[in-house]
From TrEMBL:
One of its GO terms (cellular component) is endoplasmic reticulum membrane. Keywords: Endoplasmic reticulum, Lipid biosynthesis, Lipid metabolism, Membrane, Steroid biosynthesis, Steroid metabolism, Sterol biosynthesis, Sterol metabolism, Transmembrane, Transmembrane helix. One of its GO terms (biological process) is sterol biosynthetic process. The chain crosses the membrane at residues 92-109, 116-134. Coiled coil: none annotated. Belongs to the ERG28 family. This is Erg28-like protein. InterPro entries: Erg28. Pfam families: Erg28 (PF03694). GO terms for molecular function: protein-macromolecule adaptor activity. It is found in: Endoplasmic reticulum membrane. It is a multi-pass membrane protein.
Length: 142
């Protein structure tokens, strides 16, 4: 157990300074939790897509889980490498894609309705994009 704690502690010591890297790790942890949840059940996903919950199937839940897991992994790498333009911009793109998805489901496809389950990922995407855009010059060095 000490080995695991020491390894985790050493990994976190390499994070760039500031709260943005921690935020990226936090949203990644939430995404990984959401992925696990989507592999097990579609009940929470049906709440997000309350406009057309009948279209949320176990298979769409697993596809959503895989997508969420993959962007979470990109965000983890970005959190540790914000000084590199390409990693920083990949991190930005994960939120742009998420925001595009949720906005199109709300406005075009009507899969989502404005509700607390919908607003959570929407607010995370918008606030993360604002934070990343405003901190670009602070973090990006290469």
């Amino acid at each position: 157990m000490d080995f695991i704690m020491e390894t985790v502690s050493n990994a976190f010591s390499t994070l760039p300074e500031g709260n943005l890297p921690k935020w990226l790790l936090f949203t990644s942890a939430l995404g990984i939790f959401n992925s696990i949840q989507n592999y097990c059940t579609d009940s929470l996903t049906k709440r997000v897509y309350s406009g057309t919950p009948e279209l949320v199937t176990p298979m769409t839940g697993r596809m959503f889980a895989t997508w969420t897991w993959s962007v979470s992994m990109i965000r983890i790498y970005a959190a540790f490498h914000l000084e590199h333009r390409f990693m920083y911009e990949l991190g930005i793109w994960t939120y742009v894609i998420a925001l595009t998805h949720y906005m199109s489901e709300l406005l075009i496809f009507k899969g989502c309705k404005i509700s607390v389950p919908f607003m959570s990922p929407f607010v995370v995407a918008v606030s993360s994009l604002i934070w990343l855009a405003s901190s670009y010059d602070y973090y990006v060095k290469y």
